[in-house]
What we know:
By secondary structure, the protein is an alpha+beta fold. The protein has one domain. 21% of the residues lie in helices and 26% in strands. The protein has helices spanning 31-41, 59-70, 73-77, and strands at 2-12, 20-23, 29-30, 46-57, 101-103, 106-108. The strands form 2 sheets. Strands 1, 2, 3 and 4 form a 4-stranded antiparallel β-sheet that branches. Strands 5-6 form a two-stranded antiparallel ribbon. The chain is globular, with a radius of gyration of 14 Å.
Amino acid sequence: MTKMHMATALIALAGDITNVVNRSISNPVSWPEIAVLQEVHGEQCIQEFAVCEEVETTAAAEKARLLQKYGAVVEVVYPGRNPQMDFVDPTYKPAKSSETKKTKGKTDTAPENGTGTEGEGIDPFAGQSGDAGV
């Protein structure tokens, strides 16, 4: 098992900033899910990404969850039985313990404005080495 970041995010459907879905703390996206959403909606579709929790999982379990939710497009992004998948946002810096607050039993250490900036997309492959995007 490995730790995986879950996060709140605004998702511009088909890259249209006037048609946005808010994935809040009650329905966050996983870090690997970002790449799937970018495949479906375009590279710049993710806005206001902010890590809200860490969960334990495996690549196989996360791929199975994503396949159930998004279907065949997951195989395009994460091919094979044991896909190479980044689980954490390499730019994430946890808030100081004095800034941490509890929300429904979960620790919310996400910065108020997220790790992404408005108008910028998120790159889930930013910290990955090799030719994963080729």
